[in-house]
Amino acid sequence: MSSFFKRKGVQVAAIVTAAVLIFTAISRFSGDNIISGVLRTVLSPFQSGVAYVTNKVKDSTDFIREMKSYKEENNRLINEINQLKKENRDVNNYREENERLREILNMRESMGGQYSTVSATVIAYSSNNCYDTIQIGKGSLAGIAVGNAVITPDGIVGKVVETGPTWSVISTILNPDNAMGVKVSRTGDVAVVEGDGEFYRQNHCKMTFIDRGSNLIIGDILETSGSGGVYPAGLLVGTIRDINSDAMGNLNFATIEPLVDFSRLYEVIVINGIYY
Questions:
Q1: What Rg, from alpha-carbon coordinates, does the chain have?
Q2: Rounded average pLDDT over 12-29
């Protein structure tokens, strides 16, 4: 770009020099005389050409200069827009985090009269790229112990299976080693929800031991029944996504979609004690 401007500068200088010489010659022989008239007649076309070329070169140089200015302004505006987008994302992230923490706090306060709870941040997921286990950033120093139930305001997460002083491993309800007693909120029918080796990669569970007379429908909501001694009764678990029956119409199992979105799990509540 700089070499282009240099070439243009040389051309403009040459044209201007020629024009100055011509105009000097004309002015030297100004007046009403034969030489002046001849010069004006001979050089008039050349003067027009010089003026035309000079204007064109000037217009071209101004256009390039303006284009460079527009490009710089465009880059500046793009940078400002990107910065505003980043700030907007940050604001939305802070807002979402604030809402999650408020929900966690409200739930802990609502359970405070009966349960001792600890809130913790999720710091790692299972190494198999699934959500059958997660790790949180609090452990035995915060009173967390193996067997504690882990929940969120949306529903059941799982239970503690390993602890250290400042960390704990949670086996989620997707894990094939996990099982809990549940109740269908609409009908009161009881069954068992367990992790399944076929379903957990799709973030689904399996409901079994369904009573033959149960009247289940897709979309039914499940809650903990309280049996088993790990999960308190009345906590949300998931919804029925699909119902599998045999040729006689007997219920074999149902596919369950947890209410907790494990792909967006950031904070949890650990129930580490019960007040009587």
A1: 40
A2: 56
Single out the residue of 110, 132, 227, 141 nearest to residue 180, CA to CA.
227
**70: pLDDT confidence band, cut at 50, 70 and 90?**
confident
Query: What are the φ/ψ torsions at residue 79 (nearest 5 degrees)?
Result: -65, -40
- Burial of 123-144, coded b for 16+ CB within 10 Å and e otherwise, reads eebbeeebbbbbbbebbeebeb
Residue 66 burial (10 A CB sphere; 0-12, 13-18, 19+): exposed
CA–CA separation, 35 and 41 (whole Å):
10
Cα–Cα distance between 275 and 42 in angstroms, integer?
A: 113
- When pLDDT is averaged across residues 10-29 and rounded to a whole number, the result is 56
**CA–CA distance, 208 with 250 (Å, rounded to integer):** 12
| pLDDT for position 145 | 95
